[in-house]
Amino acid sequence: MTYLENTHTTYDKLIAGVAVPVMTKNVTLKGDTATLKRGTVLALSNGKYEIVDTESETAEVKVANTVLAEDVELTGDDAVATVYTAGLFNPDAMTVKASGDTVLAHEEELSIVGIYLAKAL
């Protein structure tokens, strides 16, 4: 399993405010070959996280519950990365997998776990 290390932070308007404390944790991302950007909305399926996908046949992958905290380059193996589990986030700086899907479509399920959406100032 690959461990990823973030050595810098840039302001990209992902975090929309401090009214809700930001919480993070390290999780295992499902092995894939892809580049995931900070702000990607993730879902938990079979103990591993992957991009939320409303077109998936797997029900768990349709339900968003975390936001990726750093850019990640997946090379086929599972990888450990940091995700946000709570906070106030700008939906314009977030992404989902399906072209017909939007971050705002997942607002209610994200709010259940403590992730709230608001435009950045």
Show the helix and strand layout.
Blueprint: E1 2-3, E2 15-17, E3 23-29, E4 33-36, E5 41-45, E6 48-51, E7 66-68, E8 72-75, E9 79-89, H1 107-112, E10 115-117
Parallel strand pairs: 1-9, 9-10
Antiparallel strand pairs: 2-9, 3-9, 4-8, 5-6, 5-7, 7-9
Account of the protein in words:
The chain is mainly beta and 121 residues long. It has one helix spanning 107-112, and strands spanning 2-3, 15-17, 23-29, 33-36, 41-45, 48-51, 66-68, 72-75, 79-89, 115-117. The strands form 2 sheets. Strands 1, 2, 3, 5, 6, 7, 9 and 10 form an 8-stranded mixed β-sheet that branches. Helix 1 links the parallel strand 9 (79-89) and strand 10. The longest helix has 6 residues, at 107-112. The radius of gyration is 13 Å and the shape is globular. The model has no long low-confidence stretch (mean pLDDT 90).
Brief descriptors of the model:
single chain, 121 residues, mainly beta, eight-stranded mixed β-sheet, two-stranded antiparallel sheet, 10 strands, globular
- Multimer state: single chain
Q: Helix count, per DSSP?
A: 1
Distance between the termini: 38 Å
How are helices and strands ordered from N to C?
EEEEEEEEEHE
Uncertain runs with pLDDT below 50, 5 residues or more? Answer: none
Structural class: mainly beta
Q: Provide the gyration radius in Å.
A: 13 Å
Largest sheet: 8 strands, mixed
